[in-house]
Design brief:
The protein has 4 domains: 1-40; 43-66 and 300-391, Jelly Rolls (Sandwich), CATH 2.60.120; 71-83 and 203-296, Galactose-binding domain-like (Jelly Rolls, Sandwich); 85-201, Galactose-binding domain-like (Jelly Rolls, Sandwich), CATH 2.60.120. The protein contains 4 helices and 27 strands. The chain has helices spanning 2-27, 31-39, 215-219, 310-317; strands spanning 53-59, 62-64, 71-76, 79-82, 84-101, 105-106, 108-113, 120-132, 136-140, 143-148, 158-160, 168-175, 185-201, 206-213, 221-231, 240-244, 247-252, 260-264, 272-280, 284-296, 303-308, 321-329, 336-342, 345-351, 355-359, 367-375, 380-391. The strands form 6 sheets. Strands 1, 2, 22, 25 and 27 form a 5-stranded antiparallel sheet that branches.
Length: 393
């Protein structure tokens, strides 16, 4: 009896030792192998469950832009700016007669137009006085601009202040009263009365040109600058102003004969139509070699990652499971061309259909995988794509 008890005790100890060794062996197995051993190898039967597929990656990239160049130059035709000033007659009257006596008074009112007051300067009233007695008064729009006796038949011109001018003006001639000399009459006879002024022609003072930016160029703008060459005479010109979309980017007397680059904020530019305006305050300019130059940011296309464990890799290699890439493009009836990069393996997709699929079995690896789309010669719109494991029947 005692020997049988010792024999039973030794057998139990042996079982415990064997069990411990098995446990240690399992613990030191790779995690995926240990999982297969403990849970059963799913390669037999439904590998991916009842649906027989497993989505590894599902993304919506949207628009992927394509840039053929990293900088663009928008050339603009040369422009000529000029301002010219000439003397212009605003009013002419053959004669003006005014008198003021004890019992007889006669003054003279006349009107004249000044359509472009802003560009009218040096306004003068001229005449010859063939008869003069008393004090002559001249009023412009109710304000006195001259009041004195005339000692000469050909007096100097009377300056009419610009601040008093309106588009429609009234000029009034008066003569002073005789006072106690009631028997006499003060009077003036003015011949060849003229109102003249210097008018500046600004019709060629401003030039507007248009250039366009594509949506892709505008979206990826990094820097922008305007260059131009002003051909002018320094002593004969004034300030040159340059506007991009109504925002002033330059206002100075230019360095005539030198190419001038001006950097400006890319926020001033629009996708589509843009305008550049040159305007001068004085003199003549030939603005040549005009260009808007843009530099673009480097486009970095997104990279998408997914993982495949060793068990699934074995199923893929054993041809029990396929890795399928499914892509949905925008349905625009255009040819879609895109470079596909899977783990460094480059291939090309070209289709005019909105849906496209391709097997990736030979491109995938154990553990980390990545996929990237690079548009070819044109922007591409990808609504969504999926990387799916599909169990074969």
């Amino acid at each position: 009896m005692h020997k049988r008890g010792q024999s039973g005790s030794g057998a139990a100890t042996l079982v415990l030792i064997i069990t411990g060794l098995i446990i240690l062996y399992v613990l030191f197995l790779p995690a995926d192998v240990r999982e297969d051993l403990l849970e059963g190898n799913e390669s037999q039967g439904n590998i991916l469950g009842e649906d027989k597929n497993l989505t590894l990656l599902w993304e919506s990239p949207g628009r992927l832009d394509y840039l053929k160049l990293d900088e663009y130059e928008h050339n603009i035709p040369s422009v000529y700016l000029s301002t010219s000033t000439s003397s212009q007659m605003l009013k002419r009257i053959n004669s003006v007669y005014v008198r003021n006596g004890m019992f007889d008074t006669q003054f003279k009112n006349t009107t004249f137009s000044a359509d472009d007051v802003e560009n009218l300067d040096n306004i003068l009233l001229t005449f010859s006085a063939t008869k003069r007695r008393g004090t002559l008064s001249v009023l412009l729009n109710g304000e006195t601009v001259y009041e004195a006796p005339l000692a000469s038949q050909t007096p100097p011109p009377i300056h009419l202040e610009k601040r008093l001018l309106r588009q429609e003006n009234t000029l009034e001639f008066r003569v002073s009263g005789v006072g106690w000399r009631f028997w006499s009459t003060n009077e003036y006879v003015l011949e060849d009365v003229m109102i003249v002024g210097d008018v500046t022609d600004i019709t060629q003072q401003k030039s507007r040109n248009v250039f366009t930016l594509s949506d892709t160029e505008h979206y990826n703008l990094n820097e922008a600058r305007l260059v131009f060459l002003p051909d002018c005479t320094p002593s004969a010109v004034g300030t040159l102003n340059v506007y991009i979309n109504n925002r002033n980017i330059y206002s100075a007397k230019p360095d005539c004969g030198s190419l001038r680059p001006i950097e400006f904020s890319t926020s001033l530019l629009n996708a589509g139509e843009n305008n550049v305006v040159f305007s001068s305050e004085k003199g003549s300019f030939l603005i040549d070699r005009i260009a808007v130059k843009t530099e673009l940011k480097e486009i970095v296309y997104p990279v998408y990652y997914f993982d495949i464990n060793s068990s699934l890799i074995r199923d893929i290699m054993d041809d029990r499971v396929d890795v399928n890439l499914s892509i949905e493009f925008i349905d625009d009836n255009k040819n879609k061309r895109v470079e596909l990069n899977v783990n460094g393996h480059r291939t090309f997709i070209e289709t005019d259909e909105p849906l496209y699929s391709r097997l990736l079995d030979r491109y995938v690896e154990e553990r980390n995988n990545w996929i990237q789309f690079i548009p070819y010669r044109d922007a591409i719109d990808i609504v969504e794509f999926r990387v799916i494991l599909e169990e074969k029947d």
